[in-house]
Amino acid sequence: MSSNNWDVSDYENWTPEEFPVGMCALAGGKAVEYITGSWRSMRPLWDKDKCTNCLICWVNCPDSSIKLQDGQMVGIDLDHCKGCGVCVTECRFEALRLLPEHCDEVKCSEGPVLDEAAQPSTMNPEV
Ligand code: SF4
Ligand code: SF4
């Protein structure tokens, strides 16, 4: 199977070597080493002005991607956030919205702040 071929109709017969790198984190317990945010098609946008720091999003995020500093929410770890939208659903203060990954932030938002430092910068590292 070519690494660029996403025909998975016969995946049950693939050998472990045939699974493309990037479809799974190969080393158990080391997901933080993979830039899994690159799998995302939607991403949360955080409006820090509306945020009350209740941390409900932090409690519910299945990927531990809500970033805290000194007990305060400071942004979203977009290197690992999968864009599931759980945080958006759970936030009671409309401080989070879910946008298409490639949405123009200026046109899609009316002032919310993305943590620019948390933008995914690379695809999965070589393994
Ligand atoms: S759930 Fe909403 S208000 Fe609460 S910390 Fe998260 S973004 Fe802020
Ligand atoms: S979209 Fe999902 S993975 Fe990303 S920060 Fe929200 S709850 Fe976590």
Can you describe this structure?
The protein is of the alpha+beta class. It has a single domain, classed as Alpha-Beta Plaits. Helix content is 11%, strand content 15%. The chain is built from three helices and four strands. It has helices at 56-60, 86-90, 105-108; strands at 42-46, 66-69, 72-76, 96-100. A two-stranded antiparallel ribbon has the order 1-4. Strand 2 and strand 3 (72-76) form a beta hairpin. The longest helix is centred in the middle third of the chain and has 5 residues, at 56-60. The structure holds iron/sulfur cluster (SF4) (2 copies).
Short description:
The protein has 127 residues and is an alpha+beta fold.
The molecules bound to the chains, other than polymers, are: iron/sulfur cluster
Shape: elongated
**N/C terminus separation:** 19 Å
Assigned CATH class? Alpha Beta
Helix and strand topology:
Elements: E1 42-46, H1 56-60, E2 66-69, E3 72-76, H2 86-90, E4 96-100, H3 105-108
Antiparallel strand pairs: 1-4, 2-3
The structure holds iron/sulfur cluster (SF4) (2 copies).
Residues 44, 61, 63, 65-66, 76, 81-87 line the site of one iron/sulfur cluster (SF4).
List keywords for this structure.
binds iron/sulfur cluster; alpha+beta; disordered N terminus; elongated; two-stranded antiparallel ribbon; Alpha-Beta Plaits; 127 residues
